[in-house]
Write a structure and sequence with these properties.
The protein is of the alpha+beta class. The chain has helices at about 25-30, 35-45, 55-75, 80-85, 90-100, 135-140, 220-230, 245-250, and strands at about 115-120, 125-130, 150-155, 160-170, 175-180, 185-190, 200, 205. The chain is flat, with a radius of gyration of 32 Å.
């Protein structure tokens, strides 16, 4: 059972039938408002509530205020009662809620051709991309267009550079790619399959981090070494940093 914060007094929710003159204000409508909207409405009706209250207590105070206001005005025979009650109509509550809860949404896409790469660990990277609608439409109308692929270039610009391609679907917008070597630079491009492949977008160069093994402890500072030991790495079957994940997998299958 939730206990109201001291010294705030216990509130008793008024039954909905007592609010019939305030339709369409209902407990259900108040329950649907955000905490900011409830505080805003409380201030509007002249309630000075402490911060940090749970919604149920604020709603109780609001309903009690509506009920007391209705009784006072009817006893005084106030002819403008309906005008005042209109202040608490559902439409105004909706406006308060909408204004406080509305926030700018992040666009799902920006209709720009681009490619980005996020390296996850020494062996994997997350690649995501987008193609401008007009550019994609032009490609699809080209009879030589055979789909999309990602070109991964290892150690670009060096004499040891190698590359491989990863085919992706036309509706895809992201892919996980295995990068064979740790502590290595990679270049990744989004390409279109045509008579001569066309590069649509190229991501900035990324570098995979080096792999951690017992052999690397000597190069660490004292604190990092202690953290690595506490991680339990010494009890794991950790391969030497010079051996790639791909090589180890192939060895296990005797290929």
């Amino acid at each position: 059972m939730t206990t109201p914060p001291a010294p705030f007094r216990r509130l008793h929710l008024t039954h909905r039938r007592q609010l019939q003159d305030y339709e369409p204000v209902t407990i259900e409508k108040l329950n649907g408002l955000s905490i900011e909207a409830l505080y805003s409405l409380a201030e509007k009706v002249g309630l000075d509530l402490p911060v940090g209250l749970e919604p149920m207590f604020i709603i109780g105070e609001l309903i009690e205020a509506f009920d007391e206001d209705s009784k006072d005005r009817r006893m005084a025979g106030h002819t403008a009662v309906h005008i005042e009650e209109k202040k608490f109509s559902g439409s105004e509550l909706d406006e308060i809620d909408a204004s406080l809860d509305a926030a700018a949404c992040i666009e799902n896409r920006y209709n720009e051709t681009n490619l980005q790469v996020l390296v996850r660990d020494p062996g994997w990277a997350f690649v995501f991309w987008d193609i401008r609608d007009e550019e994609l439409e032009t490609l699809q109308l080209d009879s030589s267009f055979g789909g999309l692929f990602l070109r991964v270039i290892e150690a670009p610009g060096s004499t040891e550079a190698t590359q491989f391609d990863v085919t992706v679907g036309r509706q895809d917008s992201s892919w996980y790619i295995h990068l064979p070597e740790p502590d290595t630079w990679y270049s990744i491009e989004l390409c279109a399959k045509k008579t001569r492949p066309v590069t649509l977008a190229k991501a900035p160069l990324v570098r995979t981090p080096g792999m951690l093994s017992e052999a690397t402890f000597a190069a660490m500072d004292e604190f990092s070494t202690e953290m690595a030991i506490l991680s339990g790495i010494a009890t794991l079957d950790v391969m030497p940093a010079s051996v790639s994940s791909t090589a180890r997998i192939m060895d296990e299958f005797n290929v």
